[in-house]
Specification:
It contains 23 helices and ten strands. The protein is of the alpha+beta class. The strands form three sheets. Strands 1, 2, 3, 5, 6 and 7 form a six-stranded antiparallel sheet that branches. The chain has a two-stranded parallel ribbon with strand order 4-10. A hairpin with a 3-residue loop joins strand 5 and strand 6.
């Protein structure tokens, strides 16, 4: 049998052999076309083919709808077993706060994947047995702790026999302490009994607290013993965990396949950038013994996974942020490359302090490089071990923090305005050396001017951000085959934004990016009166006419959209949509004023603590200044990012982002497995 090639097997360039991106810009903006790979292979070749596919990391198995043979039951069964052991190990890693990142440091050799699965499970059971022994001890201790803790609130719930013995012992003590001549006095006996019960409960509570403390120490000892054992055997655990993950990937390929007595049928997705190399390697392996066919997926009939080739770490981080909202559709433009620029750009104006930014970068670097001092800071917030999540968090902190260093210098702020006024701030050395005032400073003498400048700056950022979003929206609609929507629905809305913000943006740029505040205010007002409308003169400018025409044009697009979605359109529905669209233009632009608000709040928090501290004296000032900076880094650093994400997800993505896709998840080897 022959391999049916993708058009033809072109000779791969050296860059393609190395897996490098020859059209990185296009690849970062648009998903790869996805190919469906179908293979009919002799049973003897299947294990080697699966080894190759997992080694290449270019193939994602797909469900087979073709009527061919029967499911590979042993693979389905073994996959469930392997997944169960992976879940158990990950549960132990989570409980014992272990950061396990498997690395391909050794090669395993097996006759077939079934043997690999059996070996992986066997090795996993050995490790699990050690963890289980410690876990059983901890469970026993926790059971005792639960029973003892009941005594703190309800000491009378002691077991009946034990309670009787305790009462008898306490009674003997009481009778011994009460004089004989008073032992028959009922009043005395009643008072003594009540006091005895009170003393007994207090005694039991104190005893319970002591026992709880001892049990807690015992639990901690067992916990540390388990951690010590795991750290001593970390390499073995890494390799076994990696072997399980590799076997899982291989079994997922086989579990979705079908078999007959002599052949196995596999089906899956391969991105266009990887199809030539994959087919070439399969041809070398299978030769004339197998039958392989590939074709471009028809996206009108099925939605394949989305694969975006990304080389830059910043773009990868932006893509992961984007996926929080939803994975991109394979037809649409992927905004990760643009977000890698806009995400830190917007953030740095919300968080303009280069001292605070350096702290973010430092801790981000610590999380990415798995430094325990960085993890210790995040432990109170529930981050107990290094995972892919901490790596992602660290990369975000480095990305946005690096950008904030720039605006920190422009604002002349180093851990707030207090030190910004002194001679220990390197940013101020620069500005004083130049004989200039930092252009983004919020110092009291320039506060009013900076706020006004920030208002126009925020609107300008929103103006261009939203325009980029609409341009992407036009591209997406064309790629989805909806040119009518691109022309009549998205384009007029983009024109409305262009017109609405033009006077303010023009005034900002004409005044030298706000360097002359009076000129900026004058020009913005002048352009608005001439281009939009002048209330005093009662005149309407050309841009206002264009805005109204664009609004009516958008109304026609809304009519087409309503007919397309619901099969009908009415005047009331159209009127409500038009009014909402008019409000959206204003609200979307105004929403970017949060950039100014957060920058002002960032400066104001430290300044407010400074004023309070000065009222309390030098010691109070130092204490509050220290606490203020910690609060600002933690609170404002997080709040600024949340609002940055909101501007992207709500204001920006709603203009173009389709999502409703799923990312390409290839079967790949974590540790090296060779089938002999």
């Amino acid at each position: 049998m022959n391999v049916i090639e993708y058009i033809k097997l072109y000779k791969l360039s050296a860059a393609e052999e190395r897996g490098e991106c020859t059209m990185c810009l296009k690849a970062s903006l648009f998903p790869d076309r996805m190919f469906k790979l179908r293979m009919v292979l002799p049973k003897n070749d299947v294990d080697k083919v699966v080894e190759l596919l997992t080694e290449l990391g270019s193939y994602e198995p797909a469900d087979i709808k073709l009527s061919f043979g029967e499911p590979i039951e042993w693979a389905r069964h073994d996959l469930l077993v392997v997944v169960d052991h992976i879940t158990k190990l990950e549960g132990f890693f989570e409980y014992f706060e272990l950061s396990i990142f498997p690395e391909p440091e050794r090669t395993y050799k097996f006759k077939n994947w079934r043997e690999a699965a059996q070996t992986a499970v066997k090795l996993a059971k050995e490790i699990e047995a050690e963890f289980e022994e410690k876990m059983n001890k901890i469970r026993e201790i926790e059971t005792k702790m639960f029973e003892v803790s009941a005594l703190l609130s309800k000491p009378q719930t002691l077991p009946g026999e034990l309670l009787e013995k305790l009462k008898e012992a306490a009674g003997l003590v009481a009778l011994h302490e009460i004089p004989k001549d008073l032992q028959k006095d009922m009043v005395i006996l009643d008072a003594a009994a009540k006091e005895l019960v009170k003393l007994t409960e207090e005694f039991v509570r104190k005893l319970a607290l002591k026992i709880l403390k001892e049990l807690e120490e015992e639990k901690k000892t067992v916990f540390e013993e388990a951690r010590s054992w795991a750290l001593e055997n970390e390499e073995k655990i890494k390799q076994v965990y990696g072997l399980l993950k590799t076997v899982e990937a291989a079994l997922k390929v086989l579990a979705k396949g079908k078999e007959t007595d002599y052949f196995v049928y596999l089906e899956g997705y391969v991105p266009e950038s990887k199809i030539k190399k994959t087919l070439k390697r399969l041809q070398e392996l299978v030769g004339e013994s197998g039958f392989i066919v590939s074709h471009v997926v028809d996206m009108d009939k099925e939605t394949p996974p989305t694969y975006v080739k990304v080389e830059s770490e910043a773009v990868k981080t932006a893509l992961n942020v984007e996926n929080i909202y939803g994975a991109p559709n394979p037809r649409e433009l992927v905004p990760a490359l643009i977000m890698a620029l806009t995400l830190p750009f917007i953030y740095m104006f919300m968080f303009p302090d280069w001292g605070h930014a350096l702290v973010l970068v430092l801790f981000g670097w610590g999380l990415v490089n798995r430094k325990n001092w960085a993890l210790a800071v995040f432990k109170p917030f529930g981050v107990k071990r290094f995972t892919s999540g901490t790596d992602f968090l660290g990369k975000i902190m480095m990305l946005v923090g690096s950008a904030s260093i720039i605006t920190g210098w422009l604002a002349g702020e180093f851990f707030g305005p207090l030190i910004g006024e002194s001679m220990v701030n390197p940013a101020m050395w620069l500005w004083k050396g130049l004989g200039m005032v930092p252009p983004l400073t919020f110092e009291l003498h320039y506060l009013g001017d900076t706020v006004i400048k920030y208002v126009l700056l925020s609107i300008t950022i929103g103006y261009f951000h939203l325009l980029i979003g609409h341009l992407i929206g036009i591209v997406n609609e064309v790629r989805f085959g909806r040119k009518w929507k691109a022309v009549h629905y998205v384009l007029p809305f983009m024109i409305m934004y262009l017109v609405a913000g033009a006077p303010f943006v023009a005034g900002f740029f004409a005044s030298g990016l706000g360097s002359n505040i009076q000129q900026m205010m004058y020009l913005s007002g002048k352009y608005f009166g001439e281009w939009m409308f002048d209330l005093k003169a009662g005149t309407i400018g050309p841009l206002m006419v264009i805005f109204i025409l664009a609004l009516l044009w958008r109304g026609y697009g809304i009519h087409l959209e309503l007919v397309h979605e619901y099969g009908k359109s009415s005047g009331s529905m159209l009127g409500m949509e038009l009014f909402e669209n008019f409000l959206l233009v204003i609200s979307n632009l105004v929403s970017y004023l949060r950039i100014m608000a957060l920058a002002l709040a960032h400066w104001g928090l430290v300044f407010a603590f400074q004023i309070i501290g000065e009222l309390g004296g030098p010691v109070m000032l130092v204490i509050l200044y220290f606490l203020a900076n910690i609060l600002v880094i933690m609170l404002e650093g997080l709040v600024s990012f949340i609002h940055d994400i909101r501007l992207h997800f709500y204001e920006w993505f709603t203009k173009f982002y389709v999502d409703r896709g799923r990312m390409f998840e290839p079967a790949r080897q974590i540790v090296r497995v060779r089938i002999e």
